[in-house]
């Protein structure tokens, strides 16, 4: 789980902007506006909770390369 | 930029927010209610079922424009198809039209004097000398500073404003349900009662529901534990397939998470209050949160009005105390019950649905279960099964 660093990406065509992922994220690394899903890389702790919780599977992770 | 000042600013015009805005405005204080949605109530993230008693209890008009269908009871289905039913002579609940309901609640607030802004997103708190002085609100793209004596986070499951204000509303993912729902044409289910299916393969930790809005139209949805590796959509589509129900007559897709545990101890911090889903105030057994949001809003309003009248914001703390005294014990009991029911096997569920009547199930869902558990302990199917026995004893 934690250890591997990644970026969380949304599939706009699947996402309903329900805000659920923002609700479960422990660090407020996701913000869901009325028309936009936003990820804040610096706050992410790579726990994967949002990816698992999304009711429709709209979130995936992409490994961050070239990081320490 | 002119400075905006209110007695109370409330984020979120779902259920809790507008109810509180209405009550505080009615007492003569200035209130601003904001929601990021362009149309209050849309899209819905709800199965729309609520007990009939809330209308009288919270002074909400019984308006046919948002009462979609009257309901007389419920039927529960176990994994092998055993059922338990509860049916009243009189209307026991309704299936709302939340798009209209939420909007009307906001309208009642506006009518009492509150300002209401849709498409206005609270992006952060204004903090000065360690104190929250108001909110930064983006209204149709324009960033505004709104100052208020009292800041209320009624921002639903996201609960970001409370956290930005320094109230910890974090709960682990297991304390949420992931929900997925179709409002659709569906036939063959008694449209006068709600229907609930349980089973570890059907809906892990949660249930599948059919909440009728017409003879042949219903909210058909599912809730499962949020830390489940599969999605809620996967389980609902599987259930529909297995029941031979077409997914080609769908009117809406509804998605959302429900907090089903992880209640917040500190509901007030200085001049910041949290109500509803934002404070994780949802019945952990059935995931219904509208009635709880109304209850919290009523208590929070009462103390906000007192605090403003007496110019003593310390009185806000009474909301925490009163909520925990009035609702806390029931909610803790329900959480305990939820944690036990999660451990039941499909066979256990079959057995319990066979033994229990509809009235027992209603009492369970309301947290009044001590007598029922005591009776169950005397049943041979429990008495001679060590695991069932020890699970149920956890509840006494
Ligand atoms: C699939 C599903 C089915 C459900 N079925 C039922 C049911 O049948 N019966 C029942 O009682 N409960 C049900 N619930 C739970 C119920 O929907 C919630 O408990 C209830 O809506 C809580 O009301 P609330 O006012 O606390 O929050 P919400 O109704 O969620 O309102 C919060 C509002 O805040 C807004 N908001 C959030 N952040 C911001 C921000 N930063 N700025 C501006 N606005 C913001 C949102 O747009 C939203 O309108 C269900 C939930 C789900 C997901
Ligand atoms: S939980 Fe899924 S559907 Fe909901 S906002 Fe997050 S990514 Fe979108
Ligand atoms: S991986 Fe964890 S920290 Fe990162 S956005 Fe998702 S929930 Fe938040």
Write structural notes for this entry:
The complex is a heterodimer of chains A (68) and B (396). In chain A, 15% of the residues lie in helices and 24% in strands. Chain A contains 2 helices and 4 strands, in the order E-H-E-E-H-E. The longest helix of chain A is centred in the first third of the chain and has 5 residues. Chain A is globular, with a radius of gyration of 11 Å. Chain A starts with 5 loop residues before the first strand and ends in a 5-residue tail after the last strand. Chain B has 13 helices and 18 strands. The model of chain B has no long low-confidence stretch (mean pLDDT 96). The longest helix of chain B has 20 residues. In chain B, 32% of the residues lie in helices and 28% in strands. In chain B, strands 1, 2, 8, 9, 10, 11, 17 and 18 form an 8-stranded mixed sheet that branches. Chain B has a 7-stranded mixed sheet with strand order 6-5-13-14-15-12-16, with helices on both faces. A 3-stranded antiparallel sheet of chain B has the order 3-7-4. In chain B, strand 9 and strand 10 form a beta hairpin. Chain B is α/β, with parallel strands linked by helices and 396 residues long. The chains are: A alpha+beta (68), B alpha/beta (396). At the A-B interface, helix 1 and helix 2 of A face helix 4, strand 12, helix 5 and strand 16 of B. The structure holds flavin-adenine dinucleotide and iron/sulfur cluster (SF4) (2 copies). The site of flavin-adenine dinucleotide has 41 residues of chain B, from helix 1, strand 3, strand 9, helix 4 and strand 12.
């Amino acid at each position: 789980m934690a250890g591997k660093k990644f970026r969380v990406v949304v599939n706009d065509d699947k996402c309903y902007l329900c805000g659920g992922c923002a609700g479960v994220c422990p660090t407020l690394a996701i913000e869901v506006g009325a028309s936009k899903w936003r990820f804040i890389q610096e706050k992410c702790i790579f726990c994967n909770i949002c990816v698992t919780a999304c009711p429709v599977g709209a979130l995936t992770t992409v490994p961050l390369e070239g990081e320490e | 930029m002119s400075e905006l000042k209110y007695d109370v600013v409330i984020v979120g015009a779902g259920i809790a927010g507008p109810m509180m805005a209405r009550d505080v405005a009615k007492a003569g204080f200035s209130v601003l209610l904001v929601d990021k949605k362009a149309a209050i109530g849309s899209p819905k993230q709800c199965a729309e079922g609520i007990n009939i008693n809330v209308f009288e209890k919270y002074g909400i008009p019984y308006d046919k424009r948002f009462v979609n269908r009257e309901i007389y009871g419920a039927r529960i289905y176990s994994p092998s198809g055993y059922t338990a039913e509860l049916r009243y002579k009189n209307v026991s609940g309704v299936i709302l039209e939340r798009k209209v309901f939420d909007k009307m609640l906001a309208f009642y607030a506006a009518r009492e004097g509150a300002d209401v802004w849709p498409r206005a997103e609270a992006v952060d708190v204004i903090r000065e000398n360690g104190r929250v002085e108001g909110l930064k609100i983006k209204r149709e793209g324009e960033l505004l500073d709104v100052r208020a004596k009292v800041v209320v986070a009624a921002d639903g499951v996201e609960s970001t404003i409370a956290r930005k204000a320094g109230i910890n509303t974090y709960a682990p993912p297991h304390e949420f349900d992931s929900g997925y729902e179709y409002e659709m044409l569906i036939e063959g289910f008694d449209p006068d009662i709600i229907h609930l299916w349980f089973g570890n393969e059907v809906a892990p930790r949660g249930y599948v529901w059919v909440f009728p809005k017409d003879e042949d139209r219903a909210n058909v949805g599912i809730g499962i534990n949020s830390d489940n590796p599969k999605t809620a959509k996967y389980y609902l589509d599987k259930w529909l397939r297995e029941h031979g129900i077409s997914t080609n007559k769908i009117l809406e897709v509804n998605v959302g998470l429900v907090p089903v545990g992880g209640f917040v101890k500190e509901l007030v911090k200085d001049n910041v209050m949290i109500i509803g889903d934002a404070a994780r105030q949802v019945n952990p057994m059935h995931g219904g949160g509208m009635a709880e949001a109304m209850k919290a809003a009523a208590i929070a309003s009462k103390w906000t009005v007192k605090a403003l009248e007496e110019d003593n914001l310390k009185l806000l703390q009474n909301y925490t105390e009163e909520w925990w005294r009035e609702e806390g014990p029931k909610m803790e009991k329900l959480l305990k019950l939820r944690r036990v029911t999660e451990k039941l096997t499909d066979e256990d569920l079959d057995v319990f649905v066979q033994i229990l009547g509809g009235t027992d199930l209603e009492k369970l869902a309301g947290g009044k279960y001590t007598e029922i558990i005591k009776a169950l302990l005397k049943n041979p199917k429990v008495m001679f099964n060590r695991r069932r026995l020890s699970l149920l004893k956890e509840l006494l």
